[in-house]
Amino acid sequence: MSTFGVLGTGAVGQMIAGKLIDLGHEVLMGSRTMDNEKALKFAGSFPGKSFNGLFADAFQFSDIVFNCTHGVASLDVLRSVGKENLRDKLLIDLSNPLDFSHGMPPTLSICNTSSLAESIQSEFPELKVVKALNTTWCGIMVNPGMIGGGDHNTFVSGHDESAKQRVKEILVSFGWMEKNILDLGDLTAARGMEMYLPLWLRIWGATKNGAFNVKIVS
Amino acid sequence: MSTFGVLGTGAVGQMIAGKLIDLGHEVLMGSRTMDNEKALKFAGSFPGKSFNGLFADAFQFSDIVFNCTHGVASLDVLRSVGKENLRDKLLIDLSNPLDFSHGMPPTLSICNTSSLAESIQSEFPELKVVKALNTTWCGIMVNPGMIGGGDHNTFVSGHDESAKQRVKEILVSFGWMEKNILDLGDLTAARGMEMYLPLWLRIWGATKNGAFNVKIVS
Question: Could you tell me if the ipTM is greater than 0.95?
Fold first, then answer.
């Protein structure tokens, strides 16, 4: 049993939090206010296992926190937590900097010469940021076996090797085959992981099915 | 037997031209000058089947031209051909706007709110631009069977349906299975196809093997 924090109460945050509870862990779901309806419902669903609180409480609760906030909001969320509360914490960044403010299709608010994950790492060097799981729909993040016998790929990148190793272990506990977790190197690889999203969105649009992933064939 | 033009004499242009000759077609490889060494060698290799010339000659020679120039040079190449020579021609755009001028990793000179293919289409509305084949190493473009029994995906996008249909037929003649050629819709999908390149480059870097592709699992 471990403890985890989850930032964000949307579909991704709920899916991750639910899986962690399933696996026997304790989870605090952090949000902007103490009366967030989804976070309260989550906290009530597994007494003694699931909790709610502010974003900062997620980092008080655990050394490992999943960033499941909207990518365009993530930096503000972490600013609200405060640098002093982020020291040596592992942030698993699942978010994509999708900007819907100019209509469809969304653009990326950061890309090409940087990425959301690098922006977070740069502003909060006391955090250990690992980019992971951002390239699939959240249902597949926590249940890769639901398609193709679970034999398809996911990616990780980050500057801290031991943090990345811990994330790989968590991915294996989620059902990912170790051979299919491709370590792309340092956090600059997050550019590629995030810039894949426009293609992901068009594949979804063409196939009308978000429950897909890619398998590297060689 | 059909005729095709190929713009560019690099690895991609040579691979495409060679495959077209293999399939029994006639090909003119266009370049900046009449004395381009690679184009002359190609022209001499299959007498009566392979020819060389200027970029503009490729469009004189055929109604279907592959753009295999460097992405950052493609617009200048087409400007040198002249709008009057591009009317109703089909341009199959294989290029990626990779900018190596700031070192490694390359950035994209156009992305997010547009793409190379859209930039070409916008400046030359008389062309029918179809984006295709830009998501794999050129060896796989013309020989998909070399990996995974040929069972992996390639993408097409473009505004003109009949032009896209013609490109799909060409891809099938190259060995792509029809079920694996995913039509992503209009040419705005070229953003996703080109923005996949940073991920492609990191997968190549991590696996040390450029002879890979992705298969959509669902």
Answer: yes
